[in-house]
Amino acid sequence: QVQLQESGPGLVKPSQTLSLTCAVSGASITTNDYYWSWVRQPPGKGLEWIGYIAYSGNTYISPSLQSRTSISRDTSKNQLTLQLISVTPEDTAVYYCARAWPFGSWGQGTQVTVSS
Would you give per-residue pLDDT tens digits along the chain (116 residues)? Predict the structure, then answer.
């Protein structure tokens, strides 16, 4: 029922800003007690949790990324947004959005490469 789809640029230059959008269907992102997360996986590495935005709009970002990461939403479009500033090649990864709670719904992921 719930579907998520990430979209955004596949290639970003170093020092620029990465902006990704997650379109959610089948459930409202404002539904009580629902939590929505961003996760990434660099090549050859494990999953890294980035942060979440709750149904209330409250956000939490992983301390390692907090200084240059923001998560927001557009409730009129039922979309989530990830913004990562000052990117470096170490930010190259497949980026996923997912419903953290109730657990079980993931997007297909979108590849982002940071390169000049």
Answer: 899 999 999 999 999 999 999 999 999 999 999 999 999 999 999 999 999 999 999 999 999 999 999 999 999 999 999 999 999 999 999 999 999 999 989 999 999 999 99
Q: Would you state the structure tokens that stand for residue 110, as one six-digit string?
A: 């979108």
**DSSP-derived 3-state class of residue 52:** strand
Q: Which of 97, 112, 107 is nearest to 18 (CA)?
A: 112
Do 87 and 15 touch, CB atoms closer than 8 A?
Answer: yes
